Amino acid sequence: MLRKNRLTLAVSTAMGLSAVAFAPQMAFAQEPEQVEEVIVTGSRIARPDLESASPVSVVTREEIKVTGLTDVGDLIQSMPSMSGSPIGTTTNNGGNGSVQIDLRGMGPNRTLTLINGQRLVDGGDYQTIPSAMIERVDILKDGASAVYGADAVAGVVNIITRKNFDGVEVELQTADWFDTKAGKQDTVSLVAGKTFDRGHVIFGGEFVTQEEAFQDDTPWDFFETSYYIYPEGCESNPARPYDGTPNGGCYPLGSSRIPEGRLGFASQGVYMNEGAGLVPYDGRTYNYSPVNYIQTPYDRTNFFVDGEFEVNDYVTAFTEVRVNLRKSAQELAPLPYDGRPGQDPAYTGTYVDADGVTQAFSGVSQDNYYLQQFATAAGLTPEPVTDIRRRMVETNRRFEQDITQVQAVMGLKGSFKEIDWELTYNRGRRSRTDNDYGQFAGTPLFNALGPSADLDGDGTPECYTDVNDPSTLIAGCVPLNLFGGANTVTQDQLDYVSTDLTDHYTTDLETLDFNVSGSAFELPGGDFGWAAGIGYIGEKYKYAPDSGKSQDAVTGNTGAGTEGSLYNMNLYAEIYAPLFDNGEQALSMTAGVRYDDYNAFDEETTWQLGIEANALADLKFRATAGTVFRAPTLSDLYGGLVDDFPTYVDPCTATPLPAGCARPGVQTDSQVPAKAGGNENLTPETGDTMTFGVVWTPQLFGGDLSLTVDYWDTQIEDGISSLGVQFILDDCYLNQNQQACDLVTRRPDYSVQQVIDTQLNVAEQGANGIDTEARYTIDTDLGQFRGTFLWSHLNERTKKAYAGAEEQDLSGRYTDPTAEDGGAYAEDKINYSLSWMWNGLTVSYLGEYISELDADTFCNCDSDGDPSNNKADGSYIQDVDAVLYHDLVANYTFDFGLGITAGVTNITDEEPPYIEIGFNATTDPSTYRLFGRGYYLRLTQTF
Hints:
By secondary structure, the protein is mainly beta. It folds into 2 domains: 2-216 and 295-332 and 582-942, TonB-dependent receptor, beta-barrel domain (Maltoporin, Chain A); 232-294 and 333-400 and 438-498, no CATH class. Strand 19 (347-352) and strand 20 form a beta hairpin.
């Protein structure tokens, strides 16, 4: 039937509209060709055409290569259909070396990542997927729980690997920046394969090394200092010298943990040491920005093997093996030591105040040798330091990951009496060891900040439990000098209090699936197709933190470990019913249902219905509706309480004082210590999805046009989230809810010491929008020209933090990325390209557009003129301008198999936007390009 053949060609073209919108170096067929039945991502039924009721985009291998990106996760995250701010290798504070994606901005854990239809043990870390093995990437932009089960809420990314490859391919690539002083990336890959009569084998390896870059390696001034928006309008050039006017820069903002020491004595005020002895603290802060990574380093090695062999005419054996080895690191500013109660370990004891009352304290003993020396020299009475904050610039704070991941898939497939069957076993293990450097241990800190004196008269103090009793000497202890100013802590002192911390993570995945499919009978539009299957999914996870962390006996983030398992038995069935087809008009229906039974909570049943209707040979309408769910992760269920540091505003700093506050609060930091953790009583998230779209594929002006427009809508209930520190504080002090107050601990000065905030089924969220994808190709005497255009418009991205809360619309906004659902939600994202191909030469111009954002801030600019006491209630909204990036790429392939590709990225040297609440470098590393104009060069040799 001519209609079906033409539409197959046209829709396959439309599906090829990747978000990067780059032109593959291949020619389109000039005449329709009959195609074999294929499996399309989102269904297990083989069909005679590629179109489906659900919208699917395809990123081809050629499109991946033309970007110059070897981190396929970064490429996918740049798609217009992606949103939010997932972590990547430009996420330093909060990163772990992995690369994640966020389809529709619904959260990375609501996008299911597969390789050849199989789940991954890492859950979607794109660092484990070498670009050298990828044939294409299918992005199903529709919920697919009825086929794939849990987590396919926003959609599915299915990595299809290379199969039929003959020969050897060697590829070398280097990428760097013109004005950023570091951050180079080099890639080497080798792929070899052989296709024979009864099967194929392909194997390969890829090694990628990425250089670190510090924030002060970049050409952007605001990367080198943190700023607070004051006054309003200063964000247009935040790094100008601050003068208190909108024409000047923004107010410089730093950390209260300073190298000079912020030393709060029990009754005599706060002091510091600039190098000449203790003087009153002058309010200075520490600029931590320049010494933070903005690009994290890694060495990544991936190996893969794929083989298939026909055992006989009825049975084929297949296997896939992938190995990932990675070393990565993050580096923050030196340790911000804080000896206040509820913060880092310190000496704890008692003292008698001026009123004769015995008070408990955490800090430095009044009998500490260095406190005695420096206090006396400054004319102070030696007494406990009860508030000590010091930046430990004598040592670095570094976090390293060492990951080994192995995943193997093996199975048998075949046909029996026109029924196709497949039995697949999938086993994966991920082992990760983290090492933290630059942290201090609790017991040595207690000893080193406790009583000390030079009782033996050798000029060097010793630690004692009682300085009046030499027999109480603490052997091996070295007193710690936090009073001498920057760079005065000696190596001996560091060696005594320092500790290297080691954490271990282990993840196991095991799946077993048996699927059958076929056709049952003839309908007016073709064969009635069906598929069914039964499966098992088993997951185990263990996080064993260093004993110092689990006992809360060290500096830095501490907390308990996690261990648990989750098992699932599932059944599914789906049908494809071509109800009518006369060669011009056609109507078909799809339906699927799935049953999942878990060991940790009740079973779930999901369904999906779809309809496809052709009004004309080149005009098709399609729609789907269904239900989805996301199972709680093992960390959601069994995670122990661990440290978290979200941003907050203490309600008790408001005027007038809320009724629930005992007295005015004290807030000196924008982040509050919190404890987050799991909840064994969680249940799965549930939701509904719907899409409606049109596919138009006419021949226009002598060329082929394909155009798809799809409306989509996803809504989630019972969302797994936490109430949030701000809600808990407001609920306690504004609403006087005692249950909320029980989660809050305050220090003696009435500053917030800690808030408990664990996971609950409390949230609702949703999103809807319109995707437009277009491609036009025309052949001329001057070569082939091809244009592409992808546009995603986000109508709404709604959020209810808890039942009964006011619904927020995050579309067009940038919210605190450390909070639940925080990040960037641009209303419009567009990628487009124009390519010219002629005699082995391809030249492409590429564009990427991100619309403006309204960014939340910490600022209330109706102040008294003193930015140091502004109330950070976020009443001022920052305008983040739209960004348009331009890239230019050229490739030439010689007859002897050598291909040379060169590209210049961000030609106009667009700088990333300054965003005050951006957690890393006061911008959004997941959305914007950070390093200005760059280039890459790739050589590919095939044999």
